[in-house]
C-alpha cells in the first residue's frame, strides 16, 4: 500500500468514515455516508493529485436550461464542481487535491462540499432528473 493511500485512509477513519470498498493496487477507496448524501464516493490517489468523484445523476432527456443551471450551481460550490463523465451521460461531483501537502481538514472540506452541494441542490437536481 502506498504512503498516499495510507494517509488518505487514516484521515477518513479519523473523520469517522468507513471504507466500503478498497483497491490497494489501484490506490482507490470508496466511502458511503447516506446521511450526508455520500454514496459510492470514489477517492483515487492519482499521484500527484487526489481525485474525489461521485455519480449524482444521469443527464436528463430534456436538457433545456440544465447545463446553464449546472454552471450556475458550480459558481456557489466551495470545493469541486458538477461535471459530466467522458460519455456526457452522467453528472458527477468531482474535486481534486494535491497529495503532496494533503491534510485532514482539506479532505474533510472537499467531502463536506459535496454534502452541502447535495443538500442545497438535491430537490432541483431531482426535478431535472425527472425530465
Overview of the structural elements:
- The protein is of the alpha+beta class.
- It has one domain: Yope Regulator, Chain: A (2-Layer Sandwich), CATH 3.30.1460.10.
- The chain is 37% helix and 33% strand.
- It is built from 3 helices and 6 strands; from the N terminus they run αββββαββα.
- The chain has helices at residues 3-14, 66-76, 104-129; strands at 19-23, 28-33, 38-46, 49-58, 81-84, 90-98.
- It has a 6-stranded antiparallel beta sheet with strand order 1-2-3-4-6-5.
- A hairpin with a 5-residue loop joins β5 and β6 (90-98).
- It is elongated, with a radius of gyration of 15 Å.
- The N and C termini lie far apart (44 Å).
Question: What is the topology?
Answer:
Layout: H1 3-14, E1 19-23, E2 28-33, E3 38-46, E4 49-58, H2 66-76, E5 81-84, E6 90-98, H3 104-129
Antiparallel strand pairs: 1-2, 2-3, 3-4, 4-6, 5-6
Protein name: Molecular chaperone Tir
InterPro entries: Tir-like
Brief descriptors of the model:
131 residues, 6 strands, Tir-like, Molecular chaperone Tir
